[in-house]
């Protein structure tokens, strides 16, 4: 184990040295770039440098994925000639970053300093909603910061687990007491493993309802005559990605962590230390805010309420299968438009006639759906993180005792009670004798019946599959492809002259509930933003291309042979 730890430390030191070399090399390049060329050239005036098209940094500054990276802002380039102050600030930032990296323990997890903590199963770390680094890695806009990818996070977690197993074997071999038994001597009250899993599953079920209803409601209000974007699933994907970014970066909602706000305490100590330094007094030990922030992020991601919000609400608010379905319908010139639609909402019913077009327009329609959805969802992820940073002074904190003693238990009752109530409403709708009849089942109830199944399926698939390949999140990929295939088959069955209104409503519930919650955009774009560039493009392209090919085979075989029949249900 000592050898493996030494190897890990040596690898990190090597990466850090490479980053430092890259940092100083970039500084030398900046200096040499101002030297006059010996060859004949253009005699441009000095004020040409005031053009922001020339002065602005490259959009991709860390093109090699360096572990230690220096940020070049436009403000810094503008003030570069005034010089020594900014260079001194960069040197201090570099020293702080290297100091933080060297002091931060590798492959270690922080235990609670008393109070109550959840007994989270180890395989929960395979959830990419919990494993992905924050969308904003440099919230304080330091000139130098440490970059960390999703692959590195997974490799460190796997190395940590291997070290723990090796350490247990060595301790048992020499007859020592395992560390887990020693840690039990601390005054830490752990919630039982069964209770922790029950709370987590209950939150997933409860927030799958909220996410599904939010998605269906947002589709309804964004599907109106003259809408500039006719595929209304876009706004649900953007909204869910924005909430995911906010939760990933937020440090206030779960500030109390397991009952002790350690990150907040470290932050206050750092402020006091800064004031002492300004007054001339010195302190013996520097406060490592980077390590404290990382420990806080790791702690809040073990809280069942956070898992319910990130995996349950955001994952069910967004839908990868509906995104690929809209892409196929746009390509095949069958995408519903809100022009001249009936007054009541029906996402698949249109009174408009489709105007024929050539293949070039269909290809452009396909690209429009894909590019718009992916780009806006990734942008929303980062905007959500920026909102969390901006609203930090006003974001309230959820008391840990209130969450632990009240919300957790209330979630168990509400989740299972609401699921049972949705099943009863689907069997015995309350408006059976009204006109129009039984609209509740088609609008939302059947979707709520199937939503928890899709959410829990995605949760367990991520737990058992995401750790297989660190550079390719297999769990998210499998559920997105499988859910897309299911939504294609359900769509086909809806558009054949078989069955009646009830069967059509059940299929609509499978599409909106099961497939909508089984597949996710928020986790997908979070993974794309955290993976290395080559792996992100490979993973993203494979997800879109393979899912789209499935729909071409499943839906295209019916549309281009017999054609789609009219729906038996409008809800």
Automatic annotation (TrEMBL):
Residues passing through the membrane, by range: 198-218, 224-247, 303-324, 363-389, 410-428, 440-460, 472-491, 536-558
Biological source species: Phialocephala subalpina
Region of interest (Disordered), residue spans: 1-123, 155-178
One annotated GO molecular function: fluoride transmembrane transporter activity
Predominant place of localization: membrane
Annotated membrane topology: Multi-pass membrane protein
Family note: Belongs to the fluoride channel Fluc/FEX (TC 1.A.43) family.
Name the UniProt record assigns to this protein: Related to chromosome condensation protein (CrcB)
Role summary: Fluoride channel required for the rapid expulsion of cytoplasmic fluoride.
């Amino acid at each position: 184990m000592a050898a493996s730890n030494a190897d890990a430390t040596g690898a990190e030191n090597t990466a850090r040295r490479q980053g430092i070399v890259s940092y100083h090399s970039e500084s030398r390049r900046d200096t040499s770039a101002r030297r006059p060329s010996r060859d004949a050239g253009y005699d441009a005036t000095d004020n040409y440098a005031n053009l922001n098209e020339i002065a602005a940094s490259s959009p991709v500054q860390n093109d090699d994925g360096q572990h230690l990276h220096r940020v070049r802002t436009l403000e810094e380039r503008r003030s570069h000639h005034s010089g020594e102050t900014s260079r001194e600030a960069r040197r201090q930032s570099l020293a702080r970053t290297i100091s933080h990296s060297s002091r931060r323990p590798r492959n270690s997890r922080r235990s609670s300093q008393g109070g109550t903590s959840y007994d989270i199963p180890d395989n929960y770390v395979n959830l990419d909603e919990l494993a992905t680094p924050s969308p904003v890695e440099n919230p304080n806009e330091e000139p130098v910061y440490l970059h960390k990818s999703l692959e590195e996070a997974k490799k460190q977690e796997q190395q940590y687990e291997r070290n723990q197993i090796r350490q247990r074997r060595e301790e048992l071999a020499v007859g020592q007491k395992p560390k887990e038994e020693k840690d039990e001597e601390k005054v830490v009250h752990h919630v039982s493993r069964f209770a922790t899993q029950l709370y987590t599953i209950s939150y997933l079920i409860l927030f799958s309802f909220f996410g599904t209803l939010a998605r269906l409601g947002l589709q309804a209000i964004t599907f109106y005559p003259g809408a500039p974007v006719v595929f209304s699933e876009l706004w649900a994907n953007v909204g869910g990605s924005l909430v995911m970014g906010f939760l990933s970066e937020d440090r206030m909602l779960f500030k109390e962590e397991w009952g002790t706000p350690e990150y907040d305490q470290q932050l206050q100590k750092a402020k006091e230390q800064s004031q002492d330094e300004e007054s001339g007094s010195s302190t013996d030990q520097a406060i490592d805010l980077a390590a404290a922030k990382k420990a806080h992020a790791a702690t809040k991601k073990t809280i069942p309420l956070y898992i319910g919000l990130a995996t349950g609400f955001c994952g069910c608010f967004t839908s990868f299968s509906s995104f690929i379905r809209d892409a196929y319908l746009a390509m095949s010139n069958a995408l519903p438009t809100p022009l001249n639609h009936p007054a009541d909402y029906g996402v698949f019913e249109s009174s408009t006639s489709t105007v024929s077009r050539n293949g070039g327009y269909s290809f452009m329609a396909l690209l429009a759906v894909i590019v718009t959805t992916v780009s806006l969802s990734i942008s929303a992820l980062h905007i959500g993180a920026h909102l969390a940073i901006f609203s930090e002074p006003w974001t309230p904190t959820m008391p840990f005792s209130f969450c632990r003693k009240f919300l957790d238990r209330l979630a168990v009752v509400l989740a299972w009670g609401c699921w049972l109530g949705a099943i009863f409403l689907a069997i015995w709708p309350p408006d059976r004798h009204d006109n129009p009849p039984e609209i509740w089942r088609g609008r939302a109830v059947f979707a709520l019946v199937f939503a928890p199944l899709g959410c829990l399926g995605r949760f367990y698939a991520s737990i058992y599959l995401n750790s297989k390949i660190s550079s390719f999140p297999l769990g998210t990929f499998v559920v997105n492809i499988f859910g897309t295939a299911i939504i294609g088959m359900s769509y086909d069955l809806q558009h054949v002259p078989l069955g009646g209104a009830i069967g059509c409503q059940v299929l609509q519930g499978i599409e909106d509930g099961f497939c909508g919650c089984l597949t996710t955009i928020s986790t997908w774009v979070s993974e794309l933003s955290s993976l290395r560039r080559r792996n992100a493009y490979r993973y993203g392209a494979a997800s879109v291309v393979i899912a789209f090919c499935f729909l071409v085979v499943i839906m295209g075989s019916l549309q281009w042979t017999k054609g789609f029949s009219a729906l038996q249900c409008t809800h």
